[in-house]
């Protein structure tokens, strides 16, 4: 049986749609605004799965698929003098800066997301270990993302694991679609929780 590849999961015209969207938003989009845009255009794709709100593995797969495709697209744009800035808080199209190629080639995040085996071989137990603090600490989290996650929760360091858990429950309860909230907000909170648990560990 042939293993699933990224092109089997991505919509056929993913690159064109993403480029059109980013050209329409030169200031950039955060990850979940882009996912919401893709979900509306491709209702049968992984990006439109409601299960991401409850399924940690699906949340991981959706995030990884997007970043894998974005880094791959950025490489394809090199000959056009363009690149994608890829970050959960800001995905935007920008001119390629001369002399930055070597830095990008050694970017550990880029290398991680371009390794499709990570998507294919990661199972729910792996994601749960991540959520449980199997990999945590300052070296496991981008500090910009950490600060953004704390800000999303309305928290300032120092914080405890119990405070993070309590605040998460409060915010999700208020934002859950079953109570008239917004699916995208819950997705943002889940992603922020992943980052905080990677750093602080799971209560």
Summarize the structure in words.
The structure is a single chain. This protein has two domains: 114 residues, no CATH class; 74 residues, DnaJ domain (Helix Hairpins). Helix content is 57%, strand content 4%. It has eleven helices and two strands. Strands 1-2 form a two-stranded antiparallel ribbon. The radius of gyration is 17 Å and the shape is globular. About 3% of the residues have low confidence.
Overall domain count: 2
Percent strand: under 5%
Largest sheet: 2 strands, antiparallel
Shape: globular
- Can you count the helices? 11
Mean residue pLDDT: 80
Helix/strand-derived category reads mainly alpha
Identify low-pLDDT runs: 100-106
Instruction: For the record, give the distance between the C-alpha atoms at the N and C termini, rounded to a whole number.
Output: 40 Å
Give a short overview.
With 203 residues, the protein is mainly alpha-helical. The chain is built from eleven helices and two strands, in the order H-H-H-H-E-E-H-H-H-H-H-H-H. The longest helix has 21 residues, at 56-76.
Comma- or semicolon-separated keywords:
Helix Hairpins; 11 helices; mainly alpha; two-stranded antiparallel ribbon; 2 domains; 4% strand; globular; 203 residues
What's the helix and strand layout?
Elements: H1 6-9, H2 14-24, H3 31-41, H4 56-76, E1 82-85, E2 92-95, H5 101-105, H6 108-114, H7 117-121, H8 124-131, H9 143-153, H10 161-175, H11 183-200
Antiparallel strand pairs: 1-2
Helix pairs in contact: 9-11, 10-11
């Amino acid at each position: 049986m042939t293993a699933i590849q990224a092109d089997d999961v991505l919509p056929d015209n993913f690159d064109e749609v993403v480029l059109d969207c980013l050209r329409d938003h030169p200031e950039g989009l955060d990850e979940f605004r882009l996912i919401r845009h893709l979900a509306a255009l491709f209702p049968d794709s992984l990006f439109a799965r409601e299960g991401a709100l409850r399924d940690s593995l699906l949340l991981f797969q959706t995030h990884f698929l997007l970043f894998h495709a974005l880094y791959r697209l950025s490489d394809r744009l090199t000959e056009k003098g363009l690149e994608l800035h890829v970050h959960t808080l800001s995905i935007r199209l920008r001119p390629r800066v001369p002399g930055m190629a070597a830095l990008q080639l050694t970017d550990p995040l880029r290398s991680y997301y371009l390794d499709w085996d990570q998507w294919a071989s990661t199972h729910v137990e792996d994601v749960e270990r991540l959520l449980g603090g199997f990999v945590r600490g300052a070296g496991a989290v981008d500090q910009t993302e950490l600060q953004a996650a704390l800000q999303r929760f309305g928290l300032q360091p120092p914080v405890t694991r119990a405070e993070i858990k309590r605040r998460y429950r409060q915010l999700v309860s208020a934002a859950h679609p079953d109570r008239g909230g917004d699916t995208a907000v819950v997705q943002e909170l889940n992603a922020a929780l992943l980052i905080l648990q990677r750093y602080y560990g799971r209560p």
